[in-house]
Records
---
Amino acid sequence: MEFLDKLVLPQSAEHISLIHFLLIMVLIPFLIFVSILLGGTFLSWYYELRGRKNLLYRRFAKDTIETVTVSIPVGLILGLVPLFTLILMYAQLLHTSSAITVNALTVSFVLFIIAFILIYTYRYTFSFQGIVSSLRNVIEKEDGIDTIVQKDVKRYSSTIPFLQMRAGLYGMIILFIASFFFIGGVTTSLHPENWDKIQSLFAFFYSWDVISRFLYFIMASMAITGATLMFLFFYWEGGKEDLDEPYKELVKKVAVRITLIGALFLPLLLLLNLWTLPKNALSGSVFGLAVAGIFLLFFAYHFLYAIVRGESVKSGGYVFMLLVLVFAVGIVKDQIAMNNATKTHTFQLHEQYIAYAEELRGTGAEMVAISGENIYNTLCVACHQFDTRLVGPPYREVLPKYDDDVEKLADFIRNPVRVDTSYPPMPNQGLRPNEARAVAVFMFERYGGMY
Ligand code: HEC
């Protein structure tokens, strides 16, 4: 991503640690949101498909999609904005490396926008469809309604469901692909040994590292979607009110089942992901966090089992909180692993940063290359001579004020201020600090003692 390289500044090792930290803070809510969006859209779509004649299923489909999408602003804040920030952060971390992470995330960003539009269309069409079909019922009973209106209502009430299912299906598939590229990009960042090898997004499809992490993501997505439903239907603020028994049973059954299936695979996949990490990514804290994740999962099983055994579904709330922690622990673990694995790259970036900072400061090797005399001869002679007034004052008159003070003169050169109103103001010559200093040194050397 060439254009991003221009936005990126060299970073010191301290800044890089800070970016890793920020990355964790952005990844946690983002990944949880995307997982729930993917799982929720799938569930809703599936039950809407099965629910043509079953009102309970339709109600579940509508409630689910409304729950997981929340609202458009929330979707933007939890989905698109963080993804954009993530791209910028990875561009900083992987600056000058050959990793295709940033390209993968950019592709996933574009796909994500499309998926987002489709899924929210699917969501809002539920209400729209409700309105049109009630209208149809009313129109069929009333006489004297314009036949064109009648026709339109009839037509829309039969095409809308079709369009809606399309929007849901494509939205879901595109979100699935977007997530795959996202996970692929993030996984690549953990494997510097593959940066040169994985040079196209298609390579993700046969990279075992990517596939195992994506499987983890899918299972985690199922688990957290089910847990979110339990949390919001039965736990949050005492649970939803108007839930009649059959509906409650359905929600409970579906939510518990998908949470259970997802969560059962997680420990295995977690270990598999640990195993695929490069050796230099592993450290005590990476292992520690993996173990902590597995422990948390066992706690979650405990509460899930309680629900299956027929105890209060309220425990679903705890399952949700535990799974959020599992996400957080997994993400922190991966960032530590990335930090470990990319130490060499971080060091290179740090070296570049030092060179860059020295150039700005004007110390170090860079200094030798800058010639005060050259700059003076190109920029200053047009307006100044030693003892004649040109556009600017003769140096004989103005230099004594500076009393051989290089810093003071360099300051004026960098930032000319109004001095003598019988002259026009001196335009800023756009010199860097070290260049201005070099000119000042040269001027004192050349004219010193002549006034
Ligand atoms: C476009 C014409 C122009 C160029 C180019 C220019 N100067 Fe000047 N310079 C002026 C003018 C006009 C003044 C008087 C400004 C005033 O008194 O407000 C001035 C004033 C100064 C002064 C006197 C400041 C004081 O304290 O009275 C110094 C020193 C100076 N210039 C240095 C330089 C150096 C070094 C360069 C080259 C890097 C340079 N100038 C390039 C027009 C120019």
---
Amino acid sequence: MLFLTLVIYLKCFIRVIGGHLLIYLVYFLIFRMPTELFISGKSWMLSLAELTSYFKAREIGFEVQFFSGEFFTLSFERDFDASAIADLGGTIKIGEVKAKFPTETVKEAFLKKNKQAQQQIIESLGSSGLVDGIAKSSEKVLFGVSVYCTENTLRPLSGGIQRFVGSAVKNELADLGKKSNFMGFGKDRRQAQLSHVEVLKKSLVENKAEVLFCIGRTETWAAITVAVHNPFEFQKRDIYKPNQRKIFGMPPRLARIMVNLSACTSGKVLLDPFCGVGTILQEALLEKAMVVGMDVNPWCAKAASENLEWLVREYGLEGADFRVLQGDVDKLVEKIGQEALDCIVCEPDLGPALRQVPTGPYAEKIIQKLEPLYFGFIEKAYATLKPGGHLVLVTPYIKTRSGQAVTMPIDERLGQLGLKRVHAFSKDMFSLSAGGLERLINTSSLVEMDERHIIGREIHVVEK
Ligand SMILES: C[S@@+](CC[C@H](N)C(=O)[O-])C[C@H]1O[C@@H](n2cnc3c(N)ncnc32)[C@H](O)[C@@H]1O
């Protein structure tokens, strides 16, 4: 009898503990998976592709919960280190999500001016711990609010939303006995957002004092900025390196995005066979890759080498491994060897600088003239890449008077060699709730085009 009672007690005990364990597990899996918010650079698809490649290359498990032209939310299998922003060319800010509510509530609050919905938002922000970090600062604190809005109907109201969130934060801080100043900005500003420079200059990351209020189609997130892009670092590598070339230069931010798209990580061998003054090589060296450059122009080979020496000194890159050769890409296999490279990242000649938008036939002519260089190079790239290695290649994307862009048809050549396109986005990267996937999943190349420019860049990622 005693034995039976003990068994029943034991069973009850296991059931209770087991239940708790299950609840804990569900809580851990659903709620504890850290969710981070990423504010994208101006080419959002390129920014998202860079993020997914960067995490895949480092085997960091993630899922994209939401994406739009302004921001993305990603959840991670383990804690996320926001200092990764220094490795990224296409992310402006990273925020730690503190609260989430239905966008319907935001619409009620600001489109219909519903007091109850406004109160709900104030309460959600209050109970989220959003101001805990700001409140810890010792003196009277300066904080800011930036609103990122995917919803067209709410976008014109973002100034008012920014002031509303600002006063909610200020009141919450006052309740905690903390005096604060809310950072305003001129009414002429098109977006109710602080720039990365303002966030850096006012130390808002250190003080956990920038609130990101990000309105998606069905959900809205409130986050605290935990990392911000440092434009001065990228600028230093652009304009303070000893050798520069104005017309052919690539911005270091784009070079870093391309290096990340190539899945380059520490210890991999990366080549830029059209290295110019070495912008791509610099970014790859910062990723601790073993770097090889080549250029047909002897001045470029010397200039790139000097720039890399400067980078090593400037960033204290002990043990950095690099060499720059002078030579024509025709001789790539002889100079580098067969199957020697993990990654090739490059931008060959993009054609003549155009003063006016060309006609379609003229743009076709430019492309045809460049084809032998590109097609010949793709063959050499195939021979020098290791199996599984990646090629990230820029081809010209020429605007024309008809509005139809003219591009380089490389698919046939890639197919003949057995080089496969790497699609930046696959279904398994996205949560079931992330809508609008169709246009991303079929993306085979990414375009970087400044509105002012006539020739843009089409960026292809392929694998051997
Ligand atoms: C668009 S620029 C690359 C710029 C480079 N990404 C940078 O940031 O400085 C193209 C480079 O390819 C080099 N180039 C052109 N034809 C070449 C060839 N056949 N073999 C090797 N290099 C070549 C040019 O000298 C030029 O420096």
---
Amino acid sequence: MPDNAPFPHVTADAAPAMAPPARRPAHWPIVLLRALAVLVLLQVFLQAVLAGGFITGKVTFLGLHSANGVFLVLSSMALPVAAVLLVRPGRGPWWPIVFGVVLWLLIGVQVGIGFARLVGLHIPIGMAIMALSAGLTWWAFAYRTKR
Ligand code: HEM
């Protein structure tokens, strides 16, 4: 009796079951992260421009600096959300989530320090925020989605 007696329609040379093709990681999450990183970086740069205007006598610039600071808290809040999407479905690294949360918290602290008028602390933290935002933007543009 042949080996395949119970299943006579199955022959030894039948093609093995094909595994479904592996799905590619989504590319759009890194595009979203890049767009948000650029937005945050431009807003941070605008903060320095507005602060410069205020310091040199244009008093109305402080109101704009304050409003942009609050918008910055909102736009930077979207960074860790985009970073989560970069992990799934983007299959990217996880550390940008932590980076995004830290940056968002730092910007929140910066708003508090600004309203508290602790300028000696406010300016170096502003520089640190600028460096972190620029670093994240650079990384997001250098990142390539796995194929
Ligand atoms: C990076 C993000 C920044 C945020 C979120 C932020 C936010 C704020 C906020 C909310 C205030 C209070 C405004 C008010 O009292 O109506 C403030 C004040 C101020 N900020 Fe910023 N700021 C940032 C960056 C900077 C930078 C880079 C500089 C300078 C290079 C700067 C210089 C100042 C100055 C001089 C004041 C006024 C302090 C005073 O009235 O004595 N800020 N900031």
---
Amino acid sequence: MSTQNPIASHYTSEDALERIDRHLREQGLDPAHPTLESLAPYDNFHSRGLAATLDLIALADFPAGARVLDIGGGLGGPARALASRTGAHVTVLDLTPAFVEQGHILSDRVGLSDKVDFELGDGTQMPFADGSFAGAWTQHATMNIANKNALYAEIHRVLKPGSRLAMHEVMLGNSDPIDYPMPWAGSAELSFLRSASDMRALIASAGFRELAWEDETPKVLEFVARGRDASPAERTGPAQQPPGQMILFGPAFVERIQNFGRNLGMGRLVVIQAMFERK
Ligand SMILES: C[S@@+](CC[C@H](N)C(=O)[O-])C[C@H]1O[C@@H](n2cnc3c(N)ncnc32)[C@H](O)[C@@H]1O
């Protein structure tokens, strides 16, 4: 995997499933038959974990049984939550081959492989026909995507008119420099953050009407503080995200989470939940 895209290399943990299985067994859980909640600390790879996914499902309110595209969907935790709660058929498009393989196995284990499928690919050049989907979803994926005009043009192309784009993304707050490493990038070379006002304008100019734009930063800061103050026993379970990601990416990930929390607290970063309608 050493010759692959540097962003895919950043996210590749070849033995992720073995690590998850071991950690589940340590909690007395059966890795062959996990629940969505028991997987959430590992496979909801974004701020506030499963809680944020459930909030976005409620905001998106996709039509029952809709075909939804999750761009940069990673291991597929959000896609499985969306499919199981709404009956949606979700396609995860992701750049990281290991996530595509591992995500498929996890969907099998929770009995959702008929509702969630995985495609290897780039959100700026999607392998889908025009108007293939009735909903689109991104969670903490656009920080890694440099060509945002191409990304939103592609999302517009593959959505049917009137469909919704639901998003939960990290953006620049003020103009102070960011402290790396961050969870999505070891250094600035892999990070393509834009300000909230730039993002809003460029999504609108790609042919979307804004339906909701909510600054989630205070909720994320509260979540980070709760995780930091939790006892070791409280640090496992679906409400807590950092331990799960440490299991996947090793103890060095702690510094990344700490940097993220500090930069959010200093106003350098914001977390936005938003929804748009494709015109
Ligand atoms: C922080 S993870 C978030 C994963 C998932 N959305 C979640 O919330 O659990 C970012 C994901 O975006 C994917 N990604 C980055 N650039 C991409 C691109 N250009 N096209 C598709 N996926 C991309 C990465 O491979 C990674 O899986």
